[in-house]
Model the fold of this input.
Amino acid sequence: MQHATKQNRSLKQVRRREIIRAGTTVEQMVRAIADMIVTGQMLPGEKLDEISLAARFEVSRTPVREALRELGAMGLVEREPNRSALVTNVTETYLHSMFEAMAELEAICARLAAERMTVDERRMLEIEHHASARLVHLGAEEDYAAHNTEFHTRLYRGAHNEHIYELVTQSRARLAPFRRAQFRLPGRLAKSYDEHDVIVTAIMRADGAGAAQAAYSHVEIVSDVSAVFAKASEN
Done:
C-alpha cells in the first residue's frame, strides 16, 4: 500500500513536470494573471511575488518566472533586477496605439485573404463563423473567445504571407488579455459576431477593399470597448 502511494505521488510529480515542460502551466498562469490585471483585480504598482504565485498555482518558481517574463513582454508587468515584479499601468493612450497598429495589420490580412484564400479556406471560414452563432446564443464567453482567436488566425493564414503572419500574431499576443476581456461586456458577443459577418461576406465575394475596411472597423470597435478596462486600471 505504501509502495502504491509513493508510486502515485511519483506519477503526479512526473505529470506536473510534463505540464511545465509542455508550457501549458505557464500559459494558464499568463492568462489568469493577465485577466486579473486587465479587469482591475490586480492594480498598478501591486507586487507579484514569485513564492506567493508558485503556491497559488501549485508549481515551482521556474514556470512562475517564465510567466512573469511573458507578461512583461505584453507590457502588463515590469521588473527590475533583484526586485519583485510590479503590475504596470496600461494607459488608454498606449492601448489605443497598439490597437491602431493592430487595425492596420488586420486590414492587410483581410484584404489579402479576400484575394488569396483558397476555396476550401473560404468555405471553412464561413462554416466556422456560422457555427459560432450557437456560442453567442448560449452566451458562452470563454468558448466564443477561443473561436474568436481561431477566426482571426484563419484570416492571418489566409493572407499567405509569413512575415505579415509573424507581425500580426506578435501584436495580437500583447493585446490578447484586452481582446478576451471585451466579451465580459453585455451584448458584446452578438456585436462581435455581426462584425465578423461583414468580414466573411466580403471575403466570400473576394472583395479585398471591403474586407480590409470591415476588419479595420472591427478592431477599432474592439479598441473602443477595451478602453473601458484601461480606464479602470488608471482610476
